[in-house]
Amino acid sequence: MIKADLAQLVRDTHGGISYQEALRLVDTTLDILKETLARHEDVKLTGFGTFSVRCRRSRLGRNPQTGERIELPVGWTIAFRPSRLLRF
Fold this sequence. Notes:
By secondary structure, this protein is of the alpha+beta class. Helix content is about 35%, strand content about 30%. The protein has two domains: about 1-40; about 40-88, IHF-like DNA-binding proteins (HU Protein, Chain A). The strands form two sheets. A three-stranded antiparallel beta sheet has the order 1-2-5. A hairpin with a 6-residue loop joins strand 3 and strand 4 (about 70). Helix 1 (about 5-15) packs across helix 2 (about 20-40).
């Protein structure tokens, strides 16, 4: 599913809005999600799951072209934990 499909489903569910309004609604929701995660805050969606930002520690890696060992720096990554209702 892509963002356009999601917007179409929103429009179909709420018959009173246009596709462009549904697309704006989906974009706004995703923007809020991104901004919240950028502040390193968790996003909890009841019945769906929790998005959180986690610190990834530095580690040794390898340059695939030369085989040289390099140290990869500390980084941040986004993790998703599904709610119990979403698990199969």
